[in-house]
Amino acid sequence: MEEIKKEIIEKVILVAVADQDTTEAEESLDELEELVKTAGAEVAARVIQVRETPHPGTYIGKGKIDEVNALLYGTDATGIVCDDELSPAQISNLEEALDTKVMDRTLIILDIFAKRAFTREGKIQVELAQLKYRASKLTGQGRALSRLGGGIGTRGPGEKKLEMDRRLIRTRISRLKAELRDVVKHREVQRKQRQKNHLPVVCIVGYTNAGKSTLLNHFTNAGVYEEDQLFATLDPTTKSLDLSGGQTILMTDTVGFIRKLPHHLVEAFKSTLEEAKYSDLILHVVDASNPQKEKQMEAVYDTLKQLGANESPIITAFNKIDLLNGDEILKDPNAEAVVRISGKNGEGTDQLLEQIEKILQKQKLYLEKLYGYQEAGKIQLIRSHGQLLKEEYRDDGIYVEAYIPKEILGSI
Which of 49, 108, 267, 405 stands the most exposed, by the fewest C-beta atoms within 10 Å? Predict the structure, then answer.
């Protein structure tokens, strides 16, 4: 049984190019190794070539190609994974030089997304991203795509039609875009309905495996799948949550970000990721225990900027503080508030909700008004959509102090 298991699991060699300082390349390969494991393979060896830029024809130079060739033979590896997105020529030349399967970081991420997409929207978005990636790799490869076999990097449309020509791919992409437009329309209707109901939306963003789903489950009992692995959840989930002041908000979980997030994915998942753009507040969850947290935060903010979603106020929740040793200083100059939490045991989550309520309150208008008893229905509107601070029954009417969304001012 053990032998069968070993035959099934692929072994790959990780390859990266770095300048004189290889620290960043090592960190990036650590993450790539996690991606490869998530995709279902094992890492047999790692190779870093020190050079100013990747070789335009083969990504790495001839000496390193010989070294990788020897490692392939010595470790029985079945392929290599390069840490950058490769050009069609680089893939073709490397395959010819090494006589093995050549993959890049983008392909591995797409492969994981294909495995994790369960909803119709998720599947459409992943296939669209995959086809755009495949289309960009057709130049110079001809029928080479037909050489792809089983294992990682081959899920999704690649299994259905390995020899699609450009015309067929363009046709399929057009159909998928039309399907996605329908899904996007449905999402926009839902968004407008939320706006009509004046429910504030808090969008949870963060690096993959920062603990976003764990936090959403803690607050709303959403039942979202959570696991200590990259991209454990792909499809967004929205749940309502009642704050202590009586206000109801909507919390939306989004797909995790990552360094070198493929532009095909950003484009395909734009409708999903844009939830952050239209939110009233962004809750940025950071894995405080990760030594690379500053770079991960930078990757999140870069992606938000790409989406035009960097205008909403931000609260940064440094998660997993139960894994920290000592009282490490945690800060984020981009955030209006910073909170230390543990989504796993609930530490600091009450303070987080207080900060959410406080910042959302800043976006509301303060109201003091005496309503006649015949206008009692307006007070119910305040209670439903705002935060009722004081309700006092007097001889001449009902005195109210409240914070209200500016959208309902005309109605009350």
Answer: 267
> Is residue 255 annotated as involved in ligand binding?
yes
Q: Are 364 and 386 in contact (CB under 8 A)?
A: yes
Q: Is 234 annotated as a binding residue?
A: yes
For residue range 288-334, what is the model confidence (pLDDT) as tens digits? Answer: 999 889 999 998 998 888 877 777 899 999 999 988 877 788 999 99
Say if residue 208 carries a ligand binding annotation: yes
Asked which of 160-169, 193-202, 274-283 is least confident by mean pLDDT, the reply is 160-169
Write out the two tokens for 299.
Answer: 């990757």
Q: Tell me, yes or no, if the two domains 2-114 and 199-362 fold the same way.
A: yes
Q: Is 358 annotated as a binding residue?
A: no
Measured CA to CA, the distance from residue 237 to residue 252 in angstroms comes to 6
Superfamily (CATH) of domain 2-114: GTPase HflX, N-terminal domain (3.40.50.11060)
402 labelled binding-site residue? no
Question: 83: annotated binding-site residue?
Answer: no
Is 70 annotated in some ligand binding site?
Answer: no
Strand ranges (DSSP E) for 199-271?
A: 201-206, 237-242, 248-253
pLDDT tens-place string over residues 18-59: 988 888 899 999 999 999 998 889 999 999 999 989 999 999
Q: What is the DSSP string of 13-54?
A: EEEEEE-S--HHHHHHHHHHHHHHHHHTEEEEEEEEEE-SS-
Report the chain's terminal Cα–Cα distance, integer Å.
71
Question: How far is Cα 392 from Cα 362, in angstroms, rounded to an integer?
Answer: 24
Tell me if 256 is assigned to a ligand binding site. Answer: yes
pTM for the predicted model, two decimal places: 0.78
pLDDT score of 77 more than 70: yes
Task: Tell whether 231 is in a known binding site.
Answer: yes
**Does the annotation flag 254 for ligand binding?**
yes
Question: Is the Cβ–Cβ distance between 187 and 122 less than 8 Å?
Answer: no
319 is in an annotated binding site: yes
- Asked if CATH classification 3.40.50.300 holds for the domain at 199-362, the reply, yes or no, is yes
- Extents of the domains making up the chain: 2-114, 118-178, 199-362, 365-411
Q: How many beta carbons lie within 10 A of that of residue 194, not counting itself?
A: 16
